Amino acid sequence: MDDITTIAKKDLYALVIDDEPQVSGFISQALRAEGWSVCEARTAEEAFEKLTEQKWLLVFCDVILGGTDGYAVLRQFSEKLPEARVVLMTGHGSAVGALDATAHGAYDYLIKPFTIDDILNIATAVGEQHQHHTKSKNAKAQSSSLDYISDIPLIGKSPKFVECLKMVGRVAATNLPVLITGESGTGKEVVALAIHQRSNRASGAFVPLNCGAIPVELIESELFGHAKGSFTGADRERVGLWEEASGGTLFLDEITETSLMFQVKLLRALQQGEIRRVGSNQSKRLDVRIIAATNRDIDEEVRENRFRQDLMYRLNAVNIHLPPLRERIEDIPLLARHFAKQIRPPNSPPLRFSTAALEILKNCNWQGNIRELENAVLTAASLCDDVVYPEHLPQRIRLSARKPLAPEPSDSPAGQRVEWITLADLVAGYGAEVLAHTGGNKQSAARILNIDRKTLARILKRNESEL
Fold first, then answer.
1. Shared fold status for 174-321 and 326-463
2. In sequence order, what DSSP letters do the residues of 207-243 get, joined into one string?
């Protein structure tokens, strides 16, 4: 009786919707042990009948429920009981599923099999929020027009990538500036586009600008535009990218490559919500969402006085850090098959990967991350028939795989010749790996290797047929 009284005072009511009794029983038992009052439902229809029976604070719902799905439950509860936190569960989940679930208003997204700690962490967070009378700003589901966008290759199901895309789904519905960090080739622009296409700005323009690719003296004109006659060669008025993105999203990639002088002007535009074209004395107010990205440690850039701290705070309202591919090993086969599919003729059988080829891909030190993997797979797919074997992979990939330089004696049958890797191959492979790390910038790669560009070109020459 005392327990029931305590529960009633806390108003901790949970509904578990799953057609598998073992799953619903597991969740219910864990919640009851923490003082929750729990009710179970086997179908979406049964859940709808229970919707108004109680002020449900927490709802665990399977995505697949016979004739309907968990998203229908999510919509119903979001519309009629917005204070309920809905957690979607699935046995066939992916990072994109996590993104879509949170973008549609789900409180969280769990991929089976999950642990009791996963359940209790959610329950504890929701209970604490309830006690402090906080409400989720993202309770209502997004419009059905924000369904999965198949042309965005957000592929994977590794825990780190799933958590990353949950954050993407949650922040998409806001208008906050976002700073995306991560190594080169991790897909920062793809994630920025995903945020835009799942936001209420999806009908507006998504305008990307690589700040590192624009000369310092031209970036202000490129971004803000210029008036006629403002400088030599400015024979007509020009609209900048910021203005082109009005009503949409402006993506500033490699933001840490900008000069301190330009950063002052960028900070003013962000603070005032208006821009002034180069050579003009008139300001123009524009509605633009800013998403920035960098592959550098922005805190280190601030400490070294290469990036303004006030601008960093302005851009970094929400930080999304993309994990490198070496921390997403379980996603590599999925990504490899996706990229292989891109080169296959329509209606042709899917390209298969041998076990040995997949092991090399999973053990490779992907300095160029997803971009480097894509390049390697497309090269292999163009060289093989129906199955990718190790010999179809670029030499630099075979050499950079994390494995012994030669077989252990016990691995080689008596009398069998051991294939040692030559010193030239080692040097060429390491040079290619550094080059991939710098995104193909030979000057930067040569500086890291402490050699000149001609020497770098010479040691890489043996790989030219595969690069």
1. no
2. EEEEGGGS-TTTHHHHHHEE-TTSSTT--S-EE-HHH
Domain 174-321, CATH among 3.30.70.120, 3.40.50.740, 1.10.510.10, 3.40.50.300: 3.40.50.300
Bridge-partner residues for 150, per DSSP? none
Q: For the structural domain made of 326-463, what CATH number should be given?
A: 1.10.8.60
Tell me, rounded to whole angstroms, the distance of Cα 93 from its chain centroid.
16
Cβ atoms of residues 152 and 370 within 8 Å: no
Model pTM? 0.64
Q: What is the DSSP letter of 10?
A: H
Contact call for residues 170 and 102 (beta carbons, < 8 A): yes
In tens digits, the chain (467 residues) has pLDDT values of 333 333 333 578 999 999 888 999 999 988 988 889 999 999 888 888 888 888 899 999 998 887 778 888 898 888 888 888 999 998 887 788 888 888 888 889 998 888 888 898 899 888 877 765 433 333 233 332 223 333 446 888 898 999 999 999 999 988 999 999 999 999 999 999 999 988 999 999 999 999 988 888 789 888 998 777 676 666 677 888 999 999 999 999 999 999 999 999 999 999 999 988 887 788 889 999 999 999 999 999 999 999 999 999 999 999 999 999 999 999 999 999 988 887 777 777 888 998 888 999 999 989 899 989 988 998 888 888 888 888 889 888 888 775 444 444 444 444 444 445 566 666 766 777 677 667 667 777 787 788 887 787 777 665 443 33
Distance CA 436, CA 184 (A): 9
- Joined together, the tokens standing for residue 289 give 């969402």
The length of the chain in residues reads 467
